[in-house]
Request: fold
Amino acid sequence: MKHYILGFIFLFISPFVFGQTGLKVTYEEKQVITTSITQLNINDDISIYKTISIKGEEQNTEERKKIIKNMDKNSIYLVKVFKDNKILYPAIRVFDSKKQIISDSLNSIKWKIMTNIPSSKYLGRKVKMAKCRFRERNYTAFYCPDIPISDGPFKFNGLPGLILKISSDDNFISFVATKIEFLNQSKLQVSPKYFSNQIPFWTYVKLAKKEMAENYKQFLSTLPPDQRNTKFDVKSDRIEMVF
Reply:
């Protein structure tokens, strides 16, 4: 089901401002041993997904607060631009120094809606199940057809309803909605940097793989000869296992 799109309003001011109505969804994002509280803010034109706090054994430490503050200061979040079918977010790989914006497609996920599975309820709302394989991981999602917004946490989108729960079948990562807020007004501000210096996702992947391999080769050269055959594989540590 398509997003409610009233047009992509481009204003020559800083920051850019979009839309008047919207939705805010709070999620608990778990990745291996890290748990973050994230928010998805949606209006007719765009959505913004970002981390608002990090949970752990020492919650609300100054170090964790500093991490979140720096993310806000540096405009580190993920933007979906519905009209352009784009996902935009900063390149933050270990060796990156160009501060590029990665441009991915909103149409990357092919869903299979599980029609043979009865509807269930979550947060008091009816949800249906769907499955997909996205960037080498299998996922199971639960979406709410009564909230006909084709969006969800991280890059996930494309179902006929808001995604309230989604997890990888290997338990590497999960996103669970904890709160849904309907807003009368929703002016979402996007940093101007998102609309310049963009690099296509697969071009970025190719460059990142090359750069990481070169750096790893250099690292191996510093080891004793009998340890230089160690294989380089970081896929298991990434949501998208294409690096």
